[in-house]
UniProtKB/TrEMBL annotation:
Residues 257-408 form the Peptidoglycan beta-N-acetylmuramidase NamZ C-terminal domain. Residues 56-253 form the Peptidoglycan beta-N-acetylmuramidase NamZ N-terminal domain. It comes from the Bacteria. This is Uncharacterized conserved protein YbbC, DUF1343 family. PANTHER family: HYPOTHETICAL 460 KDA PROTEIN IN FEUA-SIGW INTERGENIC REGION [PRECURSOR], PEPTIDOGLYCAN BETA-N-ACETYLMURAMIDASE NAMZ. It comes from Pedobacter soli.
Length: 414
């Protein structure tokens, strides 16, 4: 009877006849290799003595955990003095929607001031760093140019360098660590809040590696003094399953792995699952009715997507929740075929890509891609193989630079 009840509830949820009020829990680790991986944060013996007696500023969010507790709670219980916490996009607790401005606050549990680094104050100020002896950065990333944690990392490094503060980085694996793909951004006009680095769409580095890259490639006026606690037992070829949602709309491992391929749809007429509890695993639009049988209706979900594309309108498209992503991972590539397919299927092609903004001539799609060439190639009907060939010069140059900063092997034994 219990099994029958749960089955009925699941079917009603799938049909949209009842609404879930809870976000799905991320899958637990299943890889045999995963048990050998120890994050930098969990290697407390390597850095606790360095923190003792210092006033600590911690850049953290809901992914910052030591064992099964938040890094803040764990470090406080170990006698570490945390004087401020700095939160990235989505806030310290990870509950704010994408793009939402997050205000400063005081953590109700600990009484520690929380400074938002997303919105009006992207970079810590001199005043905010005055009573801090050491900054610590502990945030899970997913390896994409348009995932804003690497922007926050650069701004924190800039502030530390300017104010002679050292930054300790507790490194974490990149779940898309073997994917280096997409066009490389090369022009300043494509810089925005969703991308400020001259890198491909998927960069294949951990936060620690990316920090070394920022220092070494001259992104900072003055290099930042960094100390990195590397991940133990990790290489870039490993499957790494997250146990905590890195952001509200990356709430399953499937979404995390599809994100490099699906985030580009945010600059199009296609809804990428925002406004559902299945974000970044489904694609659709009302105009595709009759072209696809799969359908869903985006709605406003506080803390996830208040104003999703095509809100309260049935969308038709592609269901990727059971898509086998292993081949993409094996090849180290993003999937380009979906955006080509949906562009061809979309009846009003003139409005498939987002409109240009102001007098800049830059569309939301181009901002995510980092160039206007992909949009123009898709419109012109250039085959995927030729599009990928056009990426190769930039990708090969980036890969040779990236190699200098890798802390971990590309794959086991290499």
């Amino acid at each position: 009877m219990i099994r029958l009840t749960f089955t009925l509830i699941f079917l009603l949820l799938e049909a949209g006849l009842i609404k879930s009020t809870a976000q799905p829990i991320a899958p637990r680790p299943t890889s045999a290799n995963q048990s050998a991986i120890i994050t930098g944060a969990n290697q407390t013996e390597k850095y606790l003595p360095y923190l003792k007696g210092k006033r600590i500023g911690l850049v953290a969010n809901q992914t910052s955990i030591i064992g099964d507790k938040s890094s803040v709670d764990s470090l406080l219980s170990l006698g570490i003095k945390i004087v401020k916490v700095f939160g990235p996009e989505h806030g310290f607790r990870g509950k704010a929607s994408n793009g939402a401005v997050v205000a400063n606050e005081v953590d109700a549990k600990t009484g520690i001031p929380i400074i938002s680094l997303y919105g009006r104050n992207e970079k810590p100020t001199k005043a905010q760093l005055e009573n801090i002896d050491l900054m610590v950065f502990d945030i899970q990333d997913v390896g994409c140019r348009y995932y804003t944690n690497i922007n926050t990392l650069q701004y924190v490094m800039e502030a530390c360098a300017e104010n002679n503060k050292e930054l300790l980085i507790l490194d974490r694996p990149n779940p898309n660590g073997n994917i280096v793909d997409g066009p490389v951004m090369t022009e300043d006009k494509y810089k925005s809040a969703i991308g400020i680095h001259y890198i491909p769409m998927a960069h294949g580095m951990t936060i620690g590696e990316f920090a070394a890259y920022l220092n070494g490639e001259g992104y900072l006026k003055k290099p930042c003094k960094i100390k990195i606690i590397p991940v133990a037992g990790y290489n870039h070829g490993m499957n790494y399953e997250l146990t905590v949602h890195p952001s509200p709309n990356l709430n399953t491992q499937q979404a995390v792995l599809l994100f490099p391929s699906l985030c580009m749809f945010e600059g199009t007429a296609i809804n990428e699952g925002r406004g559902t509890y299945m974000p970044f695993t489904i694609l659709g639009a009302p105009a595709l009715k009759g072209k696809y049988s799969f359908s869903y209706k985006p709605v406003s979900i506080p803390g996830m997507s208040e104003r999703p594309n095509h809100r309260d309108t049935t969308c038709y498209g592609i269901d990727l929740r059971k898509y086998d992503i292993s081949e993409l991972r094996k090849a180290g590539k993003i999937n380009l075929s979906w955006v080509i397919e949906l562009y061809k299927a979309y009846p009003d092609k003139a409005h498939f890509f987002g409109a240009e903004r102001g007098n800049t001539g830059v569309s939301p799609f181009d901002l995510r891609i980092g160039t206007d060439s992909l949009r123009k190639q898709i419109i012109a009907g250039v085959p995927e193989s030729e599009i990928r060939k056009s990426w190769e010069p930039g990708l090969q140059q980036f890969k040779s630079i990236r190699k200098k900063y890798l802390l971990y092997p590309e794959s086991g034994g290499k």
